[in-house]
C-alpha cells in the first residue's frame, strides 16, 4: 500500500471518529446572579443637564428707592447749602462743583433736599453735606422704630379673653382683675365673658352689680383705658363686655 493511500485512509477515519466543531465559539454568558452582582458594583455617574435657571434659594433684595439725589446725580450747577452748625440755609448760593470738591466721598455725600422744578428756570436746589455714618445710624433707628411700632400695633389689636362667674368670690375677682389691668396698661384689648355655672350657685342681682362695679374700677385705675363695648347679654346670665387699653407712652 502506498504512502499516499495510507494518509487518505487515516484522514477519512479521523473525520469519522472526531466530530466537527464550529470555528466560531458561542459567546459566554454570566449566570444571572453574577450579572446582577456586577451591575450593583458598577458605579453609576449621574448626569445633570446644564440649566441657566437661578437657584430658588438665592435671595435678591430690590434696591431701595430714593427720593433724593446724591453727589453727581445732582444736575444743578448752583445750589444753596445747609450750614451744619446752624442747620439753616446759607444766604448766598454756591457752585455745586466747589462744594463737591471739598467733600470726602468716603465718609460724606452731598444730598439734594428739595425736589427738582423742571418748569422753573430760576430754581436753585437746597442741599446739605451728609455724614454716611450718621445717615446709616438714622436709617437703622428709623427701621427699628418702625418695627417696634408694628409690634406694638399688633399687640394692641390682639384680644385677651377672660371668663368670669357671676358668683365669683370678690377676692378671687380682685386677683383676676389685676391681670386685666396689666393687659390694659400694655394697650391691649380685653373681652370679659360672664356666665353662671350650671350646677353652681346663682348670684343675686346685688352680687352681679358688684362684679360690674369691680370691673369698672379696674378700667378707671388704668390711664387712658376705656370700656369699648358695654355689657351685652343678660345680667346674671351669659353676657360680655370689651375693654380697651390706652397706647403705652402715648
From TrEMBL:
Whether Flavoprotein counts among this entry's keywords is: no
Q: Name one GO molecular function term.
A: translation initiation factor activity
Task: Give the residue range of the signal peptide.
Answer: none
- PANTHER family assigned to the protein according to its UniProt record, in alphabetical order: TRANSLATION INITIATION FACTOR IF-3, TRANSLATION INITIATION FACTOR IF-3, MITOCHONDRIAL
Q: What are the GO BP annotations of this UniProt entry?
A: mitochondrial translational initiation; ribosome disassembly
> Per its record, how is this protein called by name?
Translation initiation factor 3 N-terminal domain-containing protein
Top-rank taxon of the source lineage equals Eukaryota
Q: Which family does it belong to?
A: Belongs to the IF-3 family.
Q: Which residue ranges have biased composition labelled Basic and acidic residues?
A: 134-151
Keyword terms of this UniProt record: Initiation factor, Protein biosynthesis
Instruction: Tell me what organism the protein belongs to.
Output: Hortaea werneckii
Amino acid at each position: 500500500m502506498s504512502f499516499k493511500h495510507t494518509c487518505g485512509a487515516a484522514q477519512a477515519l479521523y473525520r469519522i471518529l472526531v466530530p466537527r466543531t464550529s470555528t466560531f465559539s458561542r459567546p459566554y454568558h454570566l449566570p444571572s446572579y453574577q450579572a446582577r452582582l456586577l451591575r450593583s458594583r458598577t458605579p453609576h455617574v449621574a448626569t445633570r443637564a446644564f440649566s441657566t435657571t437661578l437657584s430658588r434659594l438665592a435671595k435678591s433684595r430690590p434696591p431701595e428707592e430714593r427720593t433724593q439725589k446724591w453727589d453727581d446725580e445732582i444736575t444743578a450747577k448752583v445750589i444753596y447749602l445747609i450750614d451744619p452748625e446752624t442747620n439753616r440755609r446759607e444766604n448766598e448760593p454756591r457752585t455745586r462743583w466747589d462744594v463737591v470738591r471739598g467733600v470726602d466721598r468716603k465718609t460724606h455725600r452731598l444730598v439734594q433736599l428739595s425736589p427738582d422744578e423742571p418748569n422753573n428756570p430760576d430754581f436753585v436746589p437746597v442741599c446739605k453735606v451728609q455724614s454716611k455714618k450718621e445717615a446709616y445710624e438714622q436709617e437703622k433707628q428709623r427701621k427699628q422704630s418702625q418695627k417696634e411700632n408694628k409690634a406694638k400695633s399688633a399687640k394692641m389689636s390682639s384680644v385677651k379673653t377672660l371668663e368670669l362667674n357671676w358668683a365669683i368670690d370678690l377676692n378671687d375677682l380682685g386677683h383676676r382683675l389685676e391681670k386685666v389691668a396689666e393687659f390694659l396698661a400694655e394697650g391691649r384689648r380685653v373681652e370679659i365673658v360672664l356666665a353662671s355655672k350650671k350646677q353652681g350657685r346663682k348670684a343675686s342681682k346685688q352680687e352681679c352689680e358688684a362684679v360690674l362695679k369691680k370691673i369698672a374700677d379696674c378700667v378707671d385705675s388704668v390711664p387712658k383705658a376705656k370700656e369699648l363695648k358695654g355689657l351685652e347679654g343678660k345680667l346674671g346670665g351669659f353676657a360680655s363686655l370689651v375693654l380697651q387699653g390706652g397706647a403705652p407712652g402715648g
